[in-house]
Amino acid sequence: MRHGRWRFLAGALIPALVLHVVFVLSPYAQAFYLSLTDWTGVAGEAHFVGADNYRRLAGDSLFVDAVRNNALLLVVVPLVTIAIGLFLASMLHLGGRGGRRAVAGSGAYQIIYFFPQLLSLVVVAVLWSFVYNPNTGLLNGALRALGLGGMAASWLASPSLALPAVMAVLVWSSVGFYVVLFSAAIDGIPVELFEAAVLDGAGGWATFRNVTLPLVRDTVQVAFVYLGIAALDAFAVVQVMTVGPGGPDGATEVIGLSLYRNAFQYGKFGYASAMGVALFFATLTLAVFALRGGRRSTVEAS
Amino acid sequence: MSPTRRTLIRTALTAGAAVPLLSACVTGGSDDDDPAAGNTGAKSADNPLGVKADAPLEVVIFKGGYGDEYAKHAETLYTQKYAGAKIDHKGLQKVGVALQPRFVANTPPDVVDNTGADRLDIAVLVGAKQVSDLTTLLDAPAFDDPSKKLRDTLLPGVVDDGTFDKVPRTLNFTYTVWGLWYSKKLFAAKGWAYPKTWDDMLALCATIKAAGIAPWTYQGKYPEYINDPLLSMAAKTGGLELVKAVDNLEPNAWKAPGLVSAAEAFAELAAKGYIMGGSEALSHTEAQAAWCQGKAAFIPCGSWLESEQKGVTPDGFDMVMGPVPSRTASDRLKQTAVQAASSESFLVPAKAKNPAGGMEYLRILFSKQSAKAFAESAGTLPAVAGATDGLTLSSGLSSVRDAVQAAGPETFTYRFRTWYAPLAKAVDDATGELVNKRITAAQWSERIQKAADGIAKDSSVQKYTR
Fold it and tell me: What ipTM does the predicted assembly reach?
């Protein structure tokens, strides 16, 4: 029997394990090793340079810009996306009359909110670069039509507006998914709790603050991790949409873009791997902190 | 012992210990065998490179704006001469992605057209000793004129463009000239004359602006486009010494009066509002479309512009290219001097299986008849002299040919863009800031000089001189 169990477990685990080792762990290990070399990406050999690549990172002004921008993205994108996602999800469920019914047509809204999720990120970025076009774009066109021509701007070419413009696209493209995710979480809350809250005289905000939020906390936490990882990346949108890309003058540079440029345009795979390893640890730290931080108190709805 | 969670984890970790073995594979290839062994034939007057007639040949072509028919045309000529040779033709868009693993594994093709946004960095490739020396090819007789060496049938600067550390490594097939483009029809209708000096340019810009047209636009999303006229103007003022000082990363090269005054010229262009509003955020297609619609009078671009705009240009627009105006009366080069460089770079990998065949293929491709066929189908100047003789050319292409003829020996090109890609990025960023009035000409030269000094000091960057 025992042999049979082993065999079964091995048969179930080993194929997955082998695939994981070959396609996930081995590239990681190679990246760690390459980050200590001067590999050019086209030579069959690489020289060991120790921590040299890591030392360079601090003096690379574009990389420093990238770290700053990713940090800003990390602060803003998850917070705004989750705030909007939670707001829309609770409105869909509880925004109706009496504070505990769905608004009319909430199913249709959910589908519409989910639309951006169906588009590839590159398509989203291309579409938004048309929207942001200073002369013929939808955004400036709408502002001018409303008589707000003074607010029309060169969105992606102004150092102060370019990063917020990128953030807006990231939020827009991901908020629909989180509306659906939070909706599912709110669906899981027993409706009696909301009824009790209403009977106790709780208003919309109080119900949200004291009933909804504590009970969807786990979902929000997962959302933070996902969005944090997305904010540390942001490569596709920046690469397609921004001036330069990564500009103007580093205003929208992100780590992924620096990495890509160093590896595939400058042929500095060793240095780029060092950026990748740094990014890996940043992402890992973020995930650990986000999951630890959420563990403090879990409310049981029993 | 029954498997517990703990023992399973331990098993998994043991499997993970196999990782270092696998990690050898990225940089594993290093064999010293000559991959070309047995693939050479006897040299003769008819076969100066010693091609083995039945050796297979693998050709990788960048299939971009020019397609790859012209390459197939040359392959047909090759098989006519060597009937037994089997040619494996690959027309690709992402040359770098496809070939990088093959260079690493030492199994590259025999000829590569390393072109396109996804090309491999040629300086890196040369530095890694992956590219053959093309001297024997350049000294071989031209395919359809055996009285001349191949190198003597090329336009000025073509051999230099592919030379790294005094060794020719790549041969570029197309010849690109940079300048300022305008519509001959628009200028004739308004009675405007193309300016030869920068003062005339500013005066004309005032007239154009008064006529309700933006004098200039540029491909703002990619600031390298506006760099070209700026650096051309500087080269005319300072002459080839200025260009060489820049390329050789000499101290204070970017603070040369020629460069600073060219930067001042473009800062003034921006300050006077002569650049179309919003240009700074437009992609090349958007800016060029606006120019074709007559919203702006001038746009800086290379000679590929006409074919790129084929579907967008209105009938009778008659686009032509003019050389960048002179900044001062004491410029070292004449106003007719042009920035010209060859591109579409072909190379024979050092570890190719059939290098003789690869070079022979290039000898056929760089023949006058192949180049003429290319000029006809692609509407672009090939790097072979006289390839457009006897052809009826479009307005844009004939203006480019005339510009090359008027320039004579006064063509120049900066090499730092290919040698030091990070410096090119620093220059693009700075110029983008300059023409958006966020930095001054002095700050522009200051920050580029700093970037150039950084590269000069960086021991990990291979240096080149000219």
Answer: 0.86
Peptide bond connecting A245 to the previous residue in cis, omega within 30 degrees of 0: yes
Closest listed residue to residue B75, CA positions, set B93, B90, B63 = B90
Preferred mutation among B11, B31, B121 to probe A, highest tally of A CBs within 10 A: B121
Asked if the model's pLDDT at residue B11 lies above 50, the reply is no
Going by C-beta distance under 8 Å and a sequence separation of 6 or more, which residues neighbour residue A222?
none
CA dihedral B239, B241, B247, B253 (to 10 degrees): -100
Strands B296-302 and B214-216: parallel
Domains, chain B, ranges and CATH? 57-168+348-388 (3.40.190.10), 177-340+413-457 (3.40.190.10)
Domain A55-294 -> CATH class = mainly alpha
Which neighbouring-strand residues pair with B296? B214
Residues B211-254: tens digit of each pLDDT: 999 999 999 999 999 999 999 999 999 999 999 999 999 999 99
Nearest-Cα distance to chain A for B92, in Å, is 17
Q: Which residues in chain B have Cβ-Cβ distances shorter than 8 Å to A156? A: 281
Q: Which of A123, A210, A104 is nearest to A173 (CA)?
A: A123
Alpha-carbon span B429 to A131, nearest angstrom: 24
CA–CA dist A200, A194 (Å, integer): 10
Angle between helices A61-94 and A159-187 (to 10 degrees): 40
